[in-house]
Description:
The chain is an alpha+beta fold. β14 and β15 form a beta hairpin. InterPro entries: HMG_CoA_Rdtase, HMG_CoA_Rdtase_cat_sf, HMG_CoA_Rdtase_CS, HMG_CoA_Rdtase_eu_arc, HMG_CoA_Rdtase_N, HMG_CoA_Rdtase_NAD(P)-bd_sf, HMG_CoA_Rdtase_sub-bd_dom_sf. This is 3-hydroxy-3-methylglutaryl coenzyme A reductase.
Amino acid sequence: MEARWRSSAKPVQAPKTTKTVSFEEVSGKASSSEALPLSLHLTNAVFFSLFFSVVYFLLSRWREKIRTSTPLHLVNLSEIVAIFAFIASFVYLLGFFGIDFVHSLILRPSTDLWNSEDEEENEALLRKEDARKIPCDQALDCSVTSAPIISAQKVVDEKPVKLTTEEDEEIIKAIVAGTTPSYSLESKLGDCKRAASIRREALGRITGKSLSGLPLDGFDYESILGQCCEMPIGYVQIPVGIAGPLLLNGKEYSVPMATTEGCLVASTNRGCKAIHLSGGASSVLLKDGMTRAPVVRFGTAKRAVDLKFYLEDPENFETLAVVFNRSSRFARLQGIKCVIAGKNLYLRFTCSTGDAMGMNMVSKGVQNVLDFLQTDFPDMDVIGISGNLCSDKKPAAVNWIEGRGKSVVCEAIINGDVVRKVLKTSVESLVELNMLKNLTGSAMAGALGGFNAHASNIVSAVYIATGQDPAQNIESSHCITMMEAVNEGNDLHISVTMPSIEVGTVGGGTQLASQSACLNLLGVKGASQESPGANSRRLATIVAGAALAGELSLMSALAAGQLVKSHMKYNRSSKDVSKTS
Length: 581
């Protein structure tokens, strides 16, 4: 990999010897002990003694005042002197010990950073790390210039430091040998992009496989640390197309879709055009509540039933809601549904979560309630915070019936002329195909929430583009598509009912730059300042509207016999892959 470093200074070959750079040398400041009139140990002893003496004196005086009911703010001369002495000694001790301690955490890794047999070489490596940072996208086998020296998070020297990649090479060898865990690179190096580069090179050597097609540069690895992805080695490029404008509830939206399936965006775009020419679609949010269902066990079924009755008693709901709502200023408990299986009890909590998708939020609230219940039900054994009655990332009838996340219905009336001229089919053909395919055919297949043509196609594409959890496409794609002829059979009424759209506009992947830009395009970026939860609810209606457009277009292509022809035109590459490297 060729090393690159964007800097106005010219690269200079690094010397083979390394000079130890201390914090004082980097910052250009003398040590604080050099300015003291007494020796360092004696000065420390004086201030330590002064600090604890005045603390003892003040505590004794204040205890006496409390005993005699004397106001604490009334102080005499000796107490004033003691207070000033306390402040002075505290400032000295904080400045001498506290700041150095913070600097040691920021600028100096631990002495057992790398398990190297040569301790002197290892210590030199650590001292280099104190004074320099290596650009993450540099190659591991080439000489490069480093970033300017950083001290106390400020640039104090604009001249690049000469540095080789011998340090990176030693780290790579340690990973390959198994003496240094790959997952610890970010915390030990303090440089996420450099960690990804080193991990990537080590992986290539271990597996013997090339990663040349997987990009490394051009991504903010700091943004995913501890939040989106562990042990990164690069990122996958997925093209984003635009379908629309989608006219929904009187407002136009350009819908971003991240996909590698040819014809998908074009087909959804045609559906948006048909809807727009017919006056637009309308959508209604039916329900908004994320769920989590722990499973608990008792010694007998009777005790499990006792807890069930307790939780379902309306008189206890307010108390439980107060305990649950402590987890977040947005979490609001809506209800608890209990299901018995012998002596096991499943508790399905439902709560609103603002603009967040809300899985973490509802889980914290559930944990609060479980801790609270242990007081009155000490024999309750919590088996798991999730007992699969939630149900997350799995097709489940409970989500299809009860809903999870946002429940939305979206509809439109498509003009008969638009059906014929834009969609190239007829109202009668669409109604018949929908009945035999989406309804009867899905029933024959034993479908669970799959009474549609390809709702998951649109849901997945929008989810990836906007930073949602792609795995939640499973329940979010639960959809029933209905079609019928209206206005004396001249026009088409089409609707999609989606009971469990799980989306958020804050948290998770929504904060990444690309996904945030797509949310901004839809006008739902971040949390709503006017009405908490409004942005995520609007995003759910957009997902349903886009699914409506996708269903309309695909069903029309099937009815007109155009599906194979369209895919052969838009979903086949003319590139001769045998000639590619």
